[in-house]
Amino acid sequence: MSARHVPMVLACAMLSACLSPNPPPPEAARLNLPQDWREPAQPLGRVDTTWWRHFDDPRLTQLVETALKQNLDLQIAATRIEQARAQAVVARSARLPTVNAQITGGREKSLTPLGVSISTAIQPEVALSWELDLWGRLNALSQAAQLQYQASQVQRDAAALSIAAATAQAYITLTSLDAQLFVTRETLESRRGALTLASDQARVGYISQLALTQAQSEFEAVEQSVDSLEYAVRRQENALRILLGDNPGTVERGRITALAPPEIAGALPSQLLRRRPDIVDAELQLASADLSLSAQRAQFLPQVGLSASAGRLYVDALDYDPLTVWSIGGSILAPIFNAGRLQAQADAAVARRDQAALNYRAVVQRSLAEVENALTGVDSLHQQIDHLLRRREILQRSLALAHERYRAGYAGYLEELDAQRNLYSTELAAISVREAQLNNLVTLYRALGGGWDADASNTDTSQAPSENTPP
Q1: Strand, coil or helix: what is 71?
Q2: In a domain, 377, yes or no
Q3: Structural domain of residue 56, as residue ranges?
Q4: If exposure means fewest CB atoms within 10 Å of the residue's CB, which of 140, 228, 245, 438 is most exposed?
């Protein structure tokens, strides 16, 4: 190509740079946030980042903080941050020139008209190459990698919130199992005494064999429940130790009755977008996918590269006057025919961006549902506990009356047995609902972001989409 053609080629390249903007995300990805919650929300405020301390159980606090230090999933997430940081450096370096030093040498023996000739040549040189980022392709790739690095930090924060919540809920479940096991053992001893009494009475014909078999059946059922709960306690201890990054074993804990249900500050639906790390992660993924799409579309445009090298050429002897050698040049690479490869790659980038946009909305909607469900559970579970406690008091009186009637001969043993059964099941239900109430509060802490704040964190989300619409 002659020199007079270069301006024409560059002009054509400039004109081809006027690509249309990226195609918009699908309409289905647009957010429509509610103004408020269906359920009455808690008073607005900030959630404490060490929210687990508000349950007033020092053992729970120790376990959660140990998990945040030692959990293996969090350590893996930390290595992903380092990986993403290195990849961001690689992407950023592509925008800068590369400089390489090399030395080439050789020794040759050949036959010439003058006879055998042996020559030695050594050529050290420095070479430079640089792709001019005229259309912003490399800059877009660099920004996309930087957003992935920021996303890896947010993912680590999301994992830490999940680990803290999982540890707290595992501890609550363990204390609930302890309470159920205690009640069941107490009930077993009561049933053992009742069975002894029923056996003596059946021997003298005071009660029927039907009543005796009922007492035997109830005793075996409760004894089986003890075995089942002991097995569940062991499994829960092992699961909690794994969350701590430790081997299976015993866990020190308190009682479920010592856990105080805390008051939690609420947030508006729109505030979740900056308070939940999983939502911010989805935003960053969407912004990164949009930049990757821009970079892929820039592949349709010519790529301009510059190259230069300079060195010295030594021939036959190092004391011979060396020859300075150099070169400088440029290249323009414009796609003409690639069998649809570039278009297919661009279509794939559009699909990935659309997936990220739809996933962003899905994460937001899932977060709204989690908060709504947890808010619903606050009042519902509190009312259930009140009903169960009142029912337990009633059944305790009912059991006392049934026992007196049975002792006085006004009722059969089955009436007392039925009262015992109802009281036992209600006591277990009360413990289970208490467990559900505490776990629901942990879920609400997690659903509200656990005190995490994108604006207060070290992660720069300036490239993230707005709160209402994806980019």
Answers
A1: coil
A2: yes
A3: 31-97+135-300+340-447
A4: 228
Instruction: Tell the burial category of 369 from Cβ atoms under 10 Å away from its Cβ (0-12, 13-18, 19+).
Output: exposed
**Domain assignment present for 435:** yes
Contacts of 36 (CB under 8 A, 6+ apart): 268, 269
Tokens of 223: 């004894």
138 by DSSP, 3-state: which?
Answer: helix
Question: Would you call 43 exposed, middle or buried from its count of C-beta atoms within 10 A (0-12, 13-18, 19+)?
Answer: exposed
C-alpha closest to that of 218 among 418, 444, 364, 460: 418
Q: Where are the alpha helices (DSSP H) in 244-340?
A: 272-275, 277-297
pLDDT tens-digit readout, 272-310: 999 999 999 999 999 999 999 999 999 999 999 999 999
**What b/e string do you get for 424-462 counting C-beta neighbours within 10 Å, with b at 16 or more?**
bebbbbbbebbbbbbbbbbbbbbbbbbbbbbeebebebe
Q: Is residue 155 part of a domain?
A: yes
Q: When comparing pLDDT for 435 and 321, which is higher? A: 435
Residues whose CB is less than 8 angstroms from the CB of residue 101 and which lie 6 or more positions away in sequence, other chains included: 124, 125, 126, 127
Q: Give the domain CATH number at 417.
A: 1.20.1600.10
Cβ 128 vs Cβ 309: under 8 Å? yes
Residue type, 160: A
Percent of the chain with pLDDT over 70: 91
Residue 138 CB: number of other CB atoms within 10 A?
21
446, 165 in Cβ contact below 8 A?
yes
Q: What's the Rg (C-alpha) of the chain?
A: 37
How many CB atoms neighbour CB 118 within 10 A? 9
Report if residue 417 sits inside a domain.
yes
Q: From the CB of residue 109, how many other CB atoms can be counted at a distance below 10 Å?
A: 8
- pTM over the 0.70 mark: yes
Residue 330 phi/psi, 5-degree rounding, is -150, 165
Q: At what angle do helices 137-203 and 209-243 cross, to 10 degrees?
A: 150
Instruction: From 425, 369, 365, 429, select the one nearest 399 (Cα to Cα).
Output: 425
Beta bridge partners of 323: 313
Q: In whole angstroms, what is the distance from residue 399 CA to residue 413 CA?
A: 12
DSSP 3-state of 50: coil
Q: Is the pLDDT of residue 454 over 90?
A: no
Torsion angle defined by CA atoms of residues 38, 43, 44 and 49, in that order, rounded to the nearest 10 degrees: -110
- The number of distinct structural domains making up the chain is 1
